[in-house]
Every structure is written in C-alpha cells, then in structure tokens.
Amino acid sequence: MAVPLSRSIRIKRMRKLGIVCFAAFVGLAFAVISYAQAGDADLLAVGSKKTFTVEGDNVQRFSVELAEGAFAQFSWVAATDADGLQYEITGVGGEKIQKDDASWAKSAYFVAPKAGIYSIAFSFDPKAEKKEAKALTLSYGDTFTSPKRAQVKASRKVAGYDVQILLVPDTETEPGESFVTVTKGGKLKNILHDDIGSPIMGYSFAGTADKDAVPVEKKAAALINNTLDKTGDGDPDVMIEFYSGGAHCCTTYYFIELPAEGVGAIREVATGNAGMTAIGKVPAGGLRFETADNAWAYWNTSFADSPMPSVILDFKDGVAKPNFAAMKKKAPTAAVLKRKAAEARKKISNAPYTGEWGEFEESFWGEMIDLIFTGHEGLAWQYFDMVWPKAKPGKEKFLDDFKKVLAGSYYAERDDK
Length: 417
Description:
By secondary structure, the chain is an alpha+beta fold. Among the domains are: 45-143, Jelly Rolls, CATH 2.60.120; 327-413, no CATH class. The protein is built from seven helices and 21 strands. The strands form five sheets. Strands 1-3-8-5-6 form a five-stranded mixed sheet, with helices on one face. The protein has a four-stranded antiparallel sheet with strand order 2-9-4-7, with no helix packed on it. A four-stranded antiparallel sheet has the order 10-11-12-13, with no helix packed on it.
C-alpha cells in the first residue's frame, strides 16, 4: 500500500526532528561527561596558583584543559608539611596517569596523549594515621624548562627522537630530581620525572652491559638494543629502567612508544625486588622477558629465604602479562615429590601455625609455588598434604593465607581462569 504524500512528508520531518534532538542530546551528554570528569574541580589557567586545605576525607581537585601533545606541570608547596598526603592525576576518560606521595614529590609533569580535561586531586592516604588539616599552594605551567643544575646523564637517538636522561643532583640544601625527556624536531613529546637526585638511582637506559658481563647479560642487552619494537605494538620504543633505592627494592621499567605521529604511550612494568631480563623474541613481535614474582617476599620468613618464582612476560595489548604456556615444565615423578616432602616435613615443628612471622625454618612452600607456576597446581596441593605434619594445628589457616598471597601474584593474571 502506497503511503500518502502528506504522511510521507510528516515522517521525513519527524525523522529530521529526531536527528536534531538526538544530536542535541549527544552534545548535552558530552558536556555532562566532560563536567563529570572534572567533577567540582576548579579549571586552572596557565600561570595560576591556588591555595587550598586538605583535611580528613575531603578531596581537593583541580583541572586543566589541554590539547593533544600539550605539556603540563603541577608544582606544590606545603605551608608546614604534607605528611600523609597523596596526589593523583587522571586523564580524559578518568584513567590514572600518575599517583604518588605528595609529601615526597613536589611536582608532576606529563604530556597529554589526547585533547580534553585532565585533573589533579590531593587527598590523604586512606592508611594515614593522622588526617589533620594541611595547607598547600598549587601552581600550573605549560612550558618545560630544564632545571639549572641539570646534567645530561645519558642520551640516545631512536627512530627520529632524541631521548635524554637528566640528573639534578642533590645538594646539602636542595633536593635533586631525575628526568627522561623525549623530543622530536625540538618539541617535547613525552617526559618522565621523579624526585631522586642520586647518580646510582633514578632513570637509566635498559640494555647496558659491562665488557666483563656474563653472556646472559650481554645477550639481553643485545636483544634490547637491536629490537626497535620491544612491546610488539608496531611502533619503535625506548626501554628505561628506574631504581628508587632502598633495601631489596624497587625497580620499575618504562617502555616509551615512539610513533611516527602523535603522542606515544608509556608502558609501565613494576618488578619490585626483581629485574627484567630480555630472553628472546616473541613470534608475533616484540621481546620476551623474564622476571621474578615478589608476592611471597618476607611472607613467614626472611627475604633471603623467600621464594621468588621465575615468570616469563610477553606484551599483550600494551601490557606485560605472564606467559604460563612458556613457563610450563615436565611434572616431577611421584617418587621425587614424596622424597622432597619427607625432607621438608622433618624441618617443620608441631607447634600450631598462627600466621606470625618466622614460624618455619625453611620455606617449604617454594616447591608448591614452582609446581603451580610450571603448570601443575594439582600436584602442589598434593605436595602440601604430604608435607604438613598430621599433629600440627593450623593447616587450614596456612592454606587460606597462602592462597591469599597467591591471589596477589602473577598467577592471578593467568588467562585460563
């Protein structure tokens, strides 16, 4: 049946009105989302300063509107001290860009990966013992100037980019800083920063090996230096190692992407007490790395006796993830497992397990972890049953405690769960 002309016109007009209304709705929704991302934050202008107070559980938030590739620098000064305070910078979609202790760090730098509103929030760490009022003054700038005392620690040219590691050494009266600047054609394209001014700490290029280094170290350095795309995402990158110092701590690696156009992502891989060694190439592209799981460090024993299982990492969608297929090994025989269990059981007392530190002479659970991480979780629980003395109370508590630590390890990230 043919539709009358007048009705057809009405339908077209209704459709057109619907499109206009929909467009208006989308525009309103975008505005609401943009406002929500900024929250109740003050929108800062370049060169502006804001004095504010953080107290109790309240959050002080400030926002800036940036174009893609624009540089932003936040600096703050506390009237007395900033103990217990933390800062967090969030991006256009609400994603976390930076988060740190605001009493240690005094400034934050970043290059906007895309256009939009970015926010910085100050609040007390939920674990802070005291949340008394703290007064701070925040400054915002959009131009990076190398500090006067900055020294070029190292530099490289990679895929048309100039990458420099700058060190601002500590003095008796002034704290130091460490920077990684990534420029192309004289324009700052990316930046890393930390408030560390020690030559042995801070940032350095990964892939360095001494002349007398062991073959494994030389091979790892060659893989890093001779592979432009280490993350396998199609863009060249540069691998940076960061060491914060401290006992048994703390190493983080950054892979700064160097695309032909736009702002490159920064891939962060925190390895804690362990390093990150290149061991080969991934067939699909990128490098394969080996590290160690820190989850059991100091758990029920000393650091020296803490099991730290080897973990193989491959990059997937920009994230370094454990490759358990590559970690799988042949299962031990029942006879070998029983012998190991009998030897471990001799070193375990019958005193009740309470979860207090230092209750075991040796970390027998290292064998359990190795079995789990190499693809034999079922055997790990069998081994545990063989090891635990029948007269020792606390078996269920130990197993529950162990599984909680396991849930915070690399094993929790396996894809076959």
